[in-house]
Sequence to fold (823 residues):
Amino acid sequence: MKLKKIKLSGNQLVLIIAQIIVITLFSMLNSNYFTMTNLINILTAAALVGLVAVGHTYLIIELENDLCPGSLCAFIGVLSAIMVTNWGWSIWLALPVCMLVGGCVGLFNAFMVNQIHIEAFIATLVTQAIIRGFAYIICNGIPVPVADASFVWLGKSRMLGLPVSVWIMIAAFVIFGFILAKTKFGRSVYAIGGNPQAARLAGLNPKKIITISFFMMGVMCALGGVIYVARMQTGQPSANVNLEFDAITAVVLGGVSFSGGVGNMFGTVIGVLLIQSFNTGLTMVGVSSFWQYVARGALLLGALATDYLRKKNSEKKLLEISKQIG
Amino acid sequence: MADTLEFRHITKYFPGVKALNDVSFTAYSGEVLAFLGENGAGKSTLLKTLNGDYQPDEGQYLINGEEKHFKDPKEAIAAGVSVIYQERQILPELSVAENIFLGRMPTSHYGVINTSKANEDAQRIIDQFGLKMEASEKVKNLSIAYQQMVEIMKAYSRDNLKVICFDEPTASLSDTEIDSLFEIIKKLREEGKIIIYVSHRMSELSAITDKVAIFKDGHYITTLVTKEATEDQMIKLMVGRDLGSIYNNLDRNKEIGDVLLDVKGLSSDYVDDVSFQLHKGEVLGFSGLVGAGRTETMRAIIGADPMRGGTITLEGKKIHCHNPGDARKHGIVLVPEDRKTQGILSNLSVKGNINVSMLDQNANKFGVIDSRKETKVAEEGVRSFEIKTPNIDKKISELSGGNQQKCIVARWMATTPKVLILDEPTKGIDVGAKAEFYQMIMKFAKQGLGVILISSELPEIIGLSDRVIVMRARKVSGEVMRQDATEDKLLSLAMIR
Fold:
């Protein structure tokens, strides 16, 4: 295989510079920031957001969205803890079952979007509430501890110097990045995001593509939920609030546009790293969690404004070209 | 003194096309000025830049010598410029009076709406117009013609109305309704309004207009006095050159083969009992008014709309397409009418657009795309359809309209179809590109494809088709062979009697 040079768009270059600035800034404010331990901590924390962001990359390119990952991760986390701790299942049985359950929640979202024609934003808001409810219901609101060695291995142990969870995130980025960039499915994702009507008339099946993407998102959330519990060693029904918020911010920062059809997985990788180093940095320099909410909101606003400016710019460019043609 | 409306150097760009090109002329009060031009000549765009719906990129408007800039239609209306569109802009659940005084309902001191005063005022206008309707009637209960009258009265009810524009107002009216519309337009003329009247119907021009401004490809050509101009003269100016010679010089396919596609009793939610046959190597025209069911017939055939009844036979085998993907596999493909909303994928490159229907062929058994195959397909498309683009990685939205359309055709021809359906393929592309398209269609027929051509331009249908199917009100109303096809004949089959 020939290695191709990675082409960086202007936007990705800006993000990499932003990433360097963030790291430099926090390193100056706290000498513990730019250490191997902390950088690995950042990656570990990024694993969950990263997995969810993979799903969001597909969905947002398709003009869809998903607001239930936070709830779903918490629900699956509790469920996996119950399976292993209370029912005595092996994690290697619990994990695939959980991924299947997560996938089914995704299918339910796709059903609401495709068959009942509810906007994805609202449909997944519904699921968010229902699933959060079930997260509490199945454990009566009491967190479920996890002590099983192989379960904890998932969260704690390392391979080649990096935690297992980070390897899982990297694998997800690579596999789904490849699918998005190089396969029939990926091409279809961009086509239906660019113009669903035209894509359908061109012989694609938008509903099918959207259904698969929601399913995949559910599986990713389940994987993330299990990894999170493995790290925390307890299944918390109240966990992962605002997870989708961070993931969406990362994806939009990375260059996926809310007007659909635009973006790639590499951008998402940078977006995830940026947002996680930002969040961890804020905690380390002692910004209160209350203010962190404000900062996250501001970051998303910034990302959306950038998205808008990009769109505006390309429209302007189009008109310029038209003038030349005219 | 007469009021004047001056258009000064109005220029407007849309992505891929210069919709208006340095348009300058003046309209005067007390006369009805027609805008005449082909589809895409810029008439409607001009109205939209006048009333603030679009902003002109260059140039300005002057009313009585005073420069005006309208940020939106609301400002234009407040300044006395109203446009009556083809699509009704009324609120069907509200009463006639509420529609007329929308946003300006008379109120009492406490801000409570005074319905009875509104009804009285509205009734006065209705009586002035000599119409038989109640001010308190809900608009949805009125006929289409009366709904349009409500819109006119809404514009008229403003004291300062200076300019009133009609965008193809008679498109959905009956003859008697048209007469009463003309009475009202005459009344407005006598009151000294500036009246602009956009229409495609030649016969109406002499009935109602005083002058005709002619447009072609975004240019203003000239203004003629209606009484002094002949129809031929106007058509010549509007088409710009004699397309007749283009049609006559086409290299037509003379060997029409066996039946390729046999549609029997096709019904969907939008068409009833449509039957026709298409032969190999034939160009089959579909004529009819907008909304007669031509596009809908094709959508049912390719499975874009569900079929409710009937059979489709392709090369002797019965087929049923559940979605456009099925139709593609059978070799039936549609180049849709609205390039922008149904054709192009504006986020993708020329290469991506051409290849979107070739994903199966370009991928290996694991679904991984071979990008060399994609490049080959795209380069071949660009070459054989002479698509003007610097390279295949150019975004499709950056090409001109005609070249975008060629990309869509290239997309479908890459799939080696048997039946090619073209829905208004030359809409909004310039005359030069049209001629190229016509030759392309003839080439397809020679290759043995069955070509279905939907077009609202009668000369195009007559000039290209071997046979013409006319549709009227969801049904096939007639079939005309090439040698018998005249505009009159097709129109009389298309018109609702």
Strands of chain A lie at 144-145, 158-159, 162-163, 234-235.
